[in-house]
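Dear colleague,

Following up on Tuesday's group meeting, I ran the structure prediction for the two-component complex that the binding team flagged. I've pasted the input sequences exactly as they went in, so you can double-check that nothing got truncated or mislabelled along the way. The structure tokens for the whole assembly follow below. Feel free to forward this to whoever is handling the docking comparison.

Inputs:
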Amino acid sequence: MDKLMDQLKRQIIERLNLKDLKPEDIGDDQPVFVEGLGLDSIDALELIVLLQQDYQIKLVKAEEGPKVFHTVRTMATYITEHSPAKKAS
Amino acid sequence: MQPARFITASCSIAGNTVYKNGKPEFHREGLSAADFLDELYTHYKIAYPKFHKMDQLSKLGLLAAEILLNESGHADKYGNDETGIVLSNTHGSLDVDLKFAATMEAGASPALFVYTLPNIVIGEIAIKHKFRGENAFFVFKAFNGNFMVAYVNGLFDSKLIKSCICGWVDYLGEEYRAMLMMVETSRKKNAIPFTAAEVNLLNNTSHG
């Protein structure tokens, strides 16, 4: 889980062009939207694309978005639980 | 008789050089266009994290506007709805359009998509400075000083604005050039009459 969270932090910074941030600046349980990293709705769409492209996971229920993308830990948990490898096992 | 309007400040960015009121202010050799704009962000201490998310056209326009407004006291003189922004270019948003098209096969990027209109650069400047005045973006084959002066004068005549940021912001690949003017009704030291002849002259000598 820690390795996946570190990887996610690097991907978020690169994908969302958060050039003023380093992975260690993002807390595992820090909210990423508005009051946390200040991400907006376009960033949310970009994170959905990231999930699809890099983890082959489609967010089927849009209403789950706020819960899934709340923190880096909730994202990592969702990826772990919904990865194609996990589903196949 | 037409009321007097003046170009009270100008800023051009072209050829890895910044010109403020016609004088070179900053130059950095050997950088790509994208790296040069990032260098300007650092040099002018912009401190606006959203800058890094913008497309190149918006970055160029925002930087030119920042340098134009720098130490001008503009915000103290005008209300939020009293400043207009009228820009033009020749390549529209083609630079980011091409980048967006390249992402479509693997999965279109929403962050690129939102910049696939040239007038977004106006929105970015307006958001940064809380401007809510009239605005427009025009795509021409080349800079059209006659049209620019006529259109901006129309906004002044209609009492829709009391000042205006106007000019040219164009970016495609490694080719870029911005030339912004501040137009006001009060004459300042070294102000230039806001006429088509002066605007065209300023554009032609803005080193692009």
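Chain A touches chain B through 13 residues (CB under 8 Å).

Cheers,
M.
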